[in-house]
Write a structure and sequence with these properties.
The structure is a single chain. This protein has an 8-stranded mixed β-sheet with strand order 3-2-1-4-5-6-7-8, with helices on both faces. It is an alpha/beta fold and about 280 residues long. The two termini are about 40 Å apart. The protein has 2 domains: about 160 residues, 3-Layer(aba) Sandwich (Rossmann fold); about 90 residues, Orthogonal Bundle (ProC C-terminal domain-like fold), CATH 1.10.3730.10. The protein has 12 helices and 8 strands. It is about 55% helix and about 10% strand. α2 links the parallel β2 and β3. α7 packs across α12. It is elongated, with a radius of gyration of 21 Å. The structure holds NADPH dihydro-nicotinamide-adenine-dinucleotide phosphate and (2S)-3,4-dihydro-2H-pyrrole-2-carboxylic acid. The site of (2S)-3,4-dihydro-2H-pyrrole-2-carboxylic acid has 4 residues, from α7. It is an enzyme of class 1 (oxidoreductase). Keywords: Amino-acid biosynthesis, Cytoplasm, NADP, Oxidoreductase, Proline biosynthesis. Its EC number is 1.5.1.2. It comes from Lysobacter cavernae.
């Protein structure tokens, strides 16, 4: 995929705190888009991850959060929810001195918690991106605390817009549902891909052929969903010849409780977001 170049949408440096899976996707997407790694710093304690980010994208790596955050206009907190409180507490003095725009991508953790742990009085944006950001085809839900002014909201949105569309959410409670649908969502499609591939092999297909057929089918269906102005059920009906093969499969999904299963899975992920907030306060 070719992503058009555009400059990094932030004046000043961006410090990523945490350089794991999601930070890697965001950094990779940002650098591919802007061709500019000079303004991106990352704090990551795992040497192999830190070195990998420097090698692959040219960003500066630090082993301490404060060293990366020092002087940066935007802090993007990309550590696990379970360590967020400790990381924020460690950065609180610097946050009060510097007053950066703080963006957290952690599941569950609220803007109120983040602001409190960082010492208060800060612009805090909660963002929920997903890993397709790496290829510029992510999507991000955004929620800002009331201290975030319009320019700061625009700054946060511009940063995440560089790796796919953004959607502002008015009610922070809904960020847990955003997380369940689109933050975690790529994993559900990868699970479906794994299952379809295994089922194709079970029906006698060579593994490489099964893989190619599944990959292009998911890409083709996703492209139709996004590029045609037609709802999913209409597109599904068009594949489903009466008495044909698709009908046999769809009936099998429906009698197996597919919709209820998806509903339970999304509800479980949403509830887990709430638990992560409460358990790590
Ligand atoms: N993966 C995804 O698809 C998405 C993840 N998220 C959110 O992004 C956040 C990160 O997730 P993910 O990237 O998957 O997790 P990872 O565990 O891959 O990345 C987090 C990284 O932060 C490091 N870290 C721990 N403490 C510090 C510290 N004090 N300073 C700097 N770095 C530190 C961790 O090191 P160590 O392993 O040694 O602790 C780890 O390498 C989570 O809060 C998650 O909810 C949001 C959207 C999608
Ligand atoms: O699984 C998680 O908790 C994170 C948040 C969304 C995707 N990964």
């Amino acid at each position: 995929m070719t992503i058009p170049d555009s400059p990094l949408p932030i004046a000043g440096a961006i410090a990523f705190i945490g350089g794991g899976n999601m930070a890697r996707s965001l950094i990779g997407g940002l650098v591919a888009r802007s061709r500019d790694a000079t303004a991106i710093r990352v704090a990551e304690p795992v040497v192999a991850l830190r070195d990998g980010l420097h090698r692959d994208f040219g960003v500066a790596g630090f082993d301490q959060a404060a060293a990366a955050a020092q002087g940066a206009a935007v802090w993007l907190l990309a550590v696990k929810p379970q360590v967020m409180r400790a990381v924020c507490t460690e950065l609180a003095t610097l946050a009060q001195a510097q007053r950066p725009v703080v963006i957290s991508i952690a599941a569950g953790i609220t803007v109120t918690q983040l602001e409190r742990w960082l010492g208060g009085g800060l612009a805090v944006v909660r963002a929920m991106p997903n890993t397709p950001a790496l290829l510029g085809v992510g999507i991000t839900g955004l929620y800002a605390n009331p201290r975030t002014d319009t320019a700061q909201r625009d700054q946060a949105a511009a940063l995440l817009d560089a790796v796919g569309p953004t959607v502002w959410i008015d009610d922070e409670a809904q960020m847990d549902a955003v997380t369940a649908v689109s933050g975690s969502g790529p994993a559900y499609l990868f699970l479906l891909a794994e299952a379809m591939q295994a089922a194709g092999i079970a029906q006698g297909l060579p593994p490489q052929a099964a893989r190619a057929l599944v990959q292009q089918t998911l890409l083709g269906a996703a492209t139709m969903l996004t590029q045609l102005d037609e709802p999913a059920d209409v597109l599904r009906t068009r594949v489903t010849s009466p008495g044909g093969t698709t009908q046999a499969a769809v009936e099998s999904f429906e009698t197996g409780g597919f919709r209820a299963l998806v509903d339970r899975a999304i509800a479980a992920a949403t509830e887990r977001g709430r638990q992560l907030s409460a358990a790590n306060d």
